[in-house]
Amino acid sequence: MTDHQEILRGLYDETLVGNGPRVLELTRQGLETGLTPESMLFDALIPSLEEVGARFERGDFFVPEMLVAGRAMSGALDVLRPLLAETGAQTVGTFLMSTVKGDVHDIGKNLVNIMLEGAGFHVIDLGVQVSPEKVVAGVQEHKPDIVGFSAFLTTTMPMFKANINALQKAGLRDDVIVMVGGAPVTQEYADAVGADGYAADAATAVRKAKELLAARRATVGV
């Protein structure tokens, strides 16, 4: 049992400092010694990423630290994801993510994706330069709980409204929670375009997504 505890502690510590190769090594070691994928995810990796988020919010960590921790966890997730799928592990919810049409920036989006996956969301990333038509098709195909739009340029921010209008027109707006974010985006702008949620950074995005989803489920009684 001690071995398992040591591996879990190691996964937590090494994810925190972003030591990708060691996290991968410990993940494989864990599987070899009979640790379940769920245990590694919920007892070590997710708590570690939550601590990364907390440190970022306190100002002890910055974007580079978040990125390396996220990447370290991402490697472990690549190994664990197929195994978790086999065991039918519950996901928190499905999140459809994209960078809006006219915008090719994806570092922030990718970081949010990693953090969401780490928190137990099933993330579908449509990529960059995503048109409203593609968003609508993605919602119809994947039936996500939340749709996220990212914009880095002020010139592409109006695409938030275009995307929301397209969802409205397709009769899908009430089926999904819409979240927006990106460097130039503000809460005021999110409210103006009719988004349900806004987050200034990846850590807040995860917390906000969970809150919005819990509130939605409480309302519809799911």
Automatic annotation (TrEMBL):
Gene3D superfamilies: Cobalamin-binding domain, Methionine synthase domain. Residues 1-92 form the B12-binding N-terminal domain. It comes from the Bacteria. One of its GO terms (molecular function) is metal ion binding. Keywords: Cobalt, Metal-binding, Methyltransferase, Transferase. Residues 92-222 form the B12-binding domain. SUPFAM superfamilies: Cobalamin (vitamin B12)-binding domain, Methionine synthase domain. The keyword Repeat does not apply. The keyword Ion transport does not apply. One of its GO terms (cellular component) is cytosol. GO terms for biological process: homocysteine metabolic process; methylation; tetrahydrofolate metabolic process. Belongs to the methylamine corrinoid protein family. This is 5-methyltetrahydrofolate--homocysteine methyltransferase.
